[in-house]
Design a protein that fits this description.
By secondary structure, the protein is an all-beta fold. The protein contains no helices and 19 strands. It is globular and about 60 Å long. The two termini are 34 Å apart.
Amino acid sequence: MAFLTDNYPLDSSWEIVDNCKGNEVVMSGGQYIEKGATYDSSVNVPMSEYTLTINDSYGDGICCSYGQGMYTVTFDGEVVATGGDFGGEDIKTWGSCPDTSLNVPTASPTTAPSLSPSAMPSSCEVAYEVTLNTDRNGHETSWEILYDEDHSVVASGGAGKYESKSTYVEKGCLETNCYRFKISDEWGDGMCCSYGMGSYSMKVDGYEIASGGQFKSA
């Protein structure tokens, strides 16, 4: 973490948590003293999914009203989060939780199940990951993945289930096809920036294909 302070460094604080370990705090900093100074922090952490939360107690971020502050997070040699121009809070998420599907029992069950769930695909042809950083009205946010041809819904989330100012990562598998991704806000003010710095990111097979936060109803 490289943190360049603005003219009011005491206003700033931040922490990075491991989402795969119950939001365990792995790094934190803030309430700096020097103006326009760069503070570097580093720690060795395993591959996992992490969330950075930066707070500014005055609510004007660290750029650009009172100085040119900014932050940069580098993970495994790659810049995964950067910014400075926000309000009272900025949230960024990167990485993914380790795959525990290989930790299966060594012994096989003596009696095989008679029926398999029909909804489970035999293989993951297309893997998707939806990351949501909700604003102060998280219950208003919902999303859908639809077939492009007939607009039937194949995956969805939200609809009053998300808490405010929280990070959610939704993952799943789809068959190879053409899809549409739709994110909606019930109130019609999007996820950013009237009531918090919310954002969303949509990845397919590890590649980000859509992101944002400033929209109206959808």
